[in-house]
Amino acid sequence: MKRFPLYLVAGAMVILLSACGQGGQQTQPPANNNNNANAPAGNGNATTPPSTAPAGGGNYDAAQAEALFKNNCSSCHGQNLEGAVGPNLQQVGSRYSKDDILGILQNGKGAMPGGLVSGDDAQTIASWLADKK
């Protein structure tokens, strides 16, 4: 029985892992222009903070968080958080806090590289995932 060449296995792993980073090349959701459906009614001035910015860990725009996840993370974690190359995230909030998830997004974990999302996008995704219990 012949052994499967290690270089083929290594090459396949590189291709699979690089797919996790491909979401960053997809179209991002439009920037918040204060036309957000979750914004308070009757106040259209530009000084109103965007509703997508997490405040205290739980205030975020779920639709934007889901779009960010699908554009940046679903290639490894599945469209419905079911897991694929990366782990299942359907109940990740029962295992990790928002800060833990944010740390994983920033620094990576296991085969996942850090920095695939950053700034407000990482905060939004971390808040959204922390609610998955």
Brief overview:
InterPro entries: Cyt_c-like_dom, Cyt_c-like_dom_sf, Cyt_c_BACSU-c550-type, Cytochro_C551, Cytochrome_c550/c551-like. By secondary structure, this protein is mostly helical. The protein is 40% helix and 3% strand.
General description of the model:
The chain is mainly α and 133 residues long. It has a domain at 53-133: Cytochrome c-like domain (Cytochrome Bc1 Complex, Chain D, domain 2, Orthogonal Bundle), CATH 1.10.760. The protein has helices spanning 6-21, 62-72, 74-77, 98-107, 119-130; strands at 108-109, 112-113. It has a two-stranded antiparallel sheet. A hairpin with a 2-residue loop joins strand 1 and strand 2 (112-113). Helix 2 crosses helix 5 (119-130) and helix 4 packs across helix 5. The longest helix is centred in the first third of the chain and has 16 residues, at 6-21. It is globular. It starts with 5 loop residues before the first helix and ends with a helix. Residues 22-56 have low confidence and may be disordered.
